[in-house]
Amino acid sequence: NIADRKAYAIGLVCITGLGDWPFLAPLFVWAFRNAYLEVDEKMRRQKTIKAYGAAMALFVVYEIILNVMDEPLDVMLAEMVGGLVMIALSGVCIICLYKGRRRGGSSFFSKWFFYGFYPLHLLILGIIRLVRL
To answer: How far apart are CA 100 and CA 110, in angstroms?
Structure first.
């Protein structure tokens, strides 16, 4: 039912408060999933642009809340601009290059490569962090 789904979604967003990009990551996924469910290519592009706009606005609010008391204004603005540039570049790539379908070829390799790569690189980064402490 709808109430259960909303409660589940809110709980999932709250749980992300413990991780990287807290609260933003699930909202970004939801916005982009909503855009790519659109069948009409023109509408999909418009929804994707709106999703990127919302992502950039949320990122700015998040950075301000997170850093307003901890960092000097120039450092906070530099980090914010850097993050916005990366979001914008990913948006240009996706909006201009993605055609709504998978690339041909072997999806077996890329599927299992990334299933292994993601946790493995996090493990390596965690070990590096422990060694540096």
So the answer is: 18
